[in-house]
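Exercise 7.
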Amino acid sequence: MIKQKGILFVLSGPSGVGKGTVRKSLFEKDTNLKYSISMTTRAMRQGEEEGVDYFFRSKDEFETMIEEGRMLEYAQYVGNYYGTPKQYVEEMIELGHDVFLEIEVQGALQVKENYPQGVFIFLIPPSLEELKNRIIDRGTETEDLILNRLTEAKNEIEMMDKYDYVVVNDNIEEAVSRVQSIVVSEHCKRERVAKEYKAILEGENK
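Solution. The predicted structure, written as tokens, is:
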């Protein structure tokens, strides 16, 4: 029986496009997916658990991991590091789980550099006008911040050539269905199946 390894799927796109909503809906439908747990140097909050909400590490430990190339991506935010540890992702993949990473564009490009065998999916809005409406509907940003986000979104959308797939998020259910189709398609790729199948054949011929 063919036992395939898992795959790292990276879902990215401009702020306000609905990455979190698509990812949440996808996880409700697919139990084999594992959400990539991030690592942080910020203090653990009440109710949080190590290895569930985050991997909590000291600043020195985190910086050592950066120096040793053990982070797929990382960034600093309000004086703390946040990032994706390579070991956790690789362990889940070896166990046959698909690992799903929902991340901003700059982080996704870091992952592509450090783990090019991942599958990169770019989520885009039906239009910039629709993206603007979604950001406004949040009710959390000032007019200047909305304009900054839209300018940044235009720049990020120009980076879609660096991704393997592009999914338009015009409807959550349809967007989730398209992402599910990508997952199935990737597992059916000849180079993934052939490697495992040939190993089985070699074992039978011994």
